[in-house]
Design a protein that fits this description.
about 240 residues; alpha/beta; Rossmann fold; two-stranded antiparallel sheet; 9 helices; globular
């Protein structure tokens, strides 16, 4: 069964991305720790399925309470018709508006996830963020981006406009498995690889904060005894850096 090939492929992508980009990944985790320690803000954004990474790392057990997702209704997977998400992410100017309306300011950290890196909104957001003095990190697929042209008026793709670039080491087009009798590939890898890398970055950032003598704002499960009280203390201490409540 080819499902086993998919599991192996995802594992290989994670190991390749993690093993070949340690300098960059360490810089991102150090930045994340630094921003939290300095009480700057941290944001994560992606369009459509790319936005799953933003959902993965906010308001969850074992996660950092101060990671803020940027959710725009037209990019969520409950948008109907869902094809509208593909139209909206190509719209010039929308990224600027989204950034302006989500508390992003000088000194903050913005993590952008776009697999192809070609669409207008994430590129717009990266360019506008840099004008504000915001550090930008992208998680993308370099091979995929190099195989396509930009849809942004500048002609730039996301990896060309961000301060730090993380390659998910996936296939062009994202899907990775070929089946006899099917022209299209099946089995996208970007979500599994991206969430693994981002969670690993969070863990390393938390470790750095501990070594700096900082108590990291990490959520406990609300279903554990004492969880509600623990999380309430975090909300009180870091309320100025949390925008999803």
């Amino acid at each position: 069964m080819r499902g086993n090939d998919y599991i192996n492929c995802v594992t290989e992508c994670i190991n390749k991305a993690w093993g070949t980009q340690q300098d960059t990944l360490n810089k991102v985790s150090e930045l994340l720790a630094e921003k939290i320690e300095n009480k700057n803000n941290v944001f994560v954004f992606g369009c459509s399925h790319a936005g799953i990474l933003a959902e993965e790392v906010f308001y969850r057990t074992g996660g950092l309470a101060v990671i803020n997702p940027i959710f725009f209704p037209g990019f969520m997977l409950n948008t109907r018709p869902i094809t509208m998400t593909s139209q909206l992410e190509r719209l010039p100017g929308l990224g600027k508006i989204i950034l302006e309306q989500n508390h992003v300011s000088e000194g903050d950290l913005l993590i952008l996830h776009s697999v192809s890196g070609r669409n207008t909104v994430p590129v717009d957001m990266a360019l506008e963020a840099k004008k504000l003095g915001v550090t930008t990190v992208c998680i993308t697929n370099i091979s995929y981006s190099n195989a396509v042209t930009s849809r942004h008026p500048s002609g730039k793709r996301l990896f060309e406009v961000c301060d730090l670039v993380i390659d998910n080491c996936g296939d062009v087009g994202d899907a990775a498995i070929t089946l006899d009798g099917l022209a299209e590939k099946i089995g996208p890898t970007s979500t599994a690889v991206g969430t693994a890398l981002l969670n690993a970055i969070v863990i390393d950032a938390v470790e750095k904060m501990i070594s700096d003598g900082i108590v990291p704002p990490v959520f406990m499960s609300a279903n554990l005894n004492g969880g509600d009280e623990h999380n309430a203390r975090i909300f009180e201490e870091y309320g100025d850096n949390i925008f999803y409540m």
